[in-house]
Amino acid sequence: MIRFFKIMYFLSICFAFGLSTFAQNKKWSLDECINYAIEHNVQIKQYELEAQSAEINKQQNIGNFFPTINAEANHSWTISDQMNVTSLTTSVADSKTFQASNFGISIGVDIYGGMQNQNKLVKSRLALVAARYQVQKMKEDVALNVVNSYLQVLFNKELIKTNKVQLEFDQNQEVKTQELVNAGVVPAGDLLDVQATVAAANQRLIASQNEWVMAKLNLAQLLQIDDYENFDISDSDYEIKDELISSYTANEIKERAFESLTDIKTAEINVETAEKDVRIAQGAYHPKLRGFYNFGTNIYYQDRIVGQEILSSTSPIGYVEGTNQTVMQQNRMTVFGGPESFFTQFDNNKSSTFGLSLSIPIFNGMQVRNSVKLSKLALEQIQNEKEVAVLKLEQLVFKAYTDTESALKTFEASELTLNARERSLEYARERYAVGLINIFELNQNQNMYVAAQSDFLKSKYDYIFKTKILEYYFGIPLFKNE
């Protein structure tokens, strides 16, 4: 049994170590980075909360069409001086406490209110759509930032590979030059030049490694990953090919942008919302008609008169005219009993009231008039904002189109330059090998080739990113919406 637990403990350690190693060796793809950033971005969560609030607000406006039902109950104590009807002398007053309970239910429903409830409901639905557009826009902005940072990491990784290859070549050249110096074929100064070249290549490699670390840190922070030291992306190689987007004109891309992007849709919804605000403000000019029904009952807890008791004594009540004979009557005493039962009073004392309530606005300190004016001014402002949004999107699309074309030309030119520099370097190496040029001239060709490599990589990833932006304007999604 002990042996079994030892084996299980060993396997658990191995499994945990395997998970840790897997986590450290995980390579993040671009789609994984985008989805992770969207899922953990705080601003996106804030906009999602606003969308949830808009949904609740819509439900509240739907509730305005339902009748209002309220129940109430109260119990009161009243202390007052009352004449003692049980006393034969009417001048006696006692302090008494009376208790009573009231129960009621009221129902009210809006029949007409200037279409304000209808316009409020439509406005809340528009606000919900606008809030969802804001969430989508924020996700797209985060995705674009991730794409840019991801491509920057790829650029620096490729630059490191290029600088490593160049450093290895320079180190091999240093060894060969050392052999030639030892054989007396080339002067010792050539060795110093080669060593300086090796040092410069090593410096470029260190700089590119530092830039790669910073680019990786920037991407990890964008994804809100703390363990950036073990964070790395997959070695994806984005080849430049004939993009489908290049077959469309700037106007065609602009039209697609107006149809697909949330910027113009949000601006249009804001205009519709402002129009509803005007309608809501104007609805205050209209009369309001409301139906109501009230049901109530009362319960009293004081003693009640249940009859009279005839006493043996008498008392005079007057005289007979002419004879002055005294007229006597039998004395009586009021008999009290306890209050009726709760449910008996509940049934006997109930009452119902129903009817219509009409409210007609006549003068309200010009509040409605000013409210309508303010809502109309707000509508004009939002209409202007929509025009600005249209012009801004047009400018962005044409700029993205021009930038993409320029980036493609720059990439093609850098590719031609790199090929030419590569052939020139090969030729310079052949000439140096037979002594036709010195080491200084060889290093010049090599430095120009290294610069051409760097320019080629920069132009490549710059074109890829600008193409992604143009595709985004064209309506090609940056990520899959769940």
TrEMBL record:
PANTHER family: OUTER MEMBRANE PROTEIN TOLC. GO terms for molecular function: efflux transmembrane transporter activity; porin activity. GO terms for cellular component: cell outer membrane; efflux pump complex. Keywords: Cell outer membrane, Membrane, Signal, Transmembrane, Transmembrane beta strand, Transport. InterPro entries: OMP_efflux, TolC-like. Belongs to the outer membrane factor (OMF) (TC 1.B.17) family. This is Outer membrane protein. Gene3D superfamilies: Outer membrane efflux proteins (OEP). It is found in: Cell outer membrane. Its main location: membrane. Residues 1-23 form the signal peptide. It holds the Pfam family OEP.
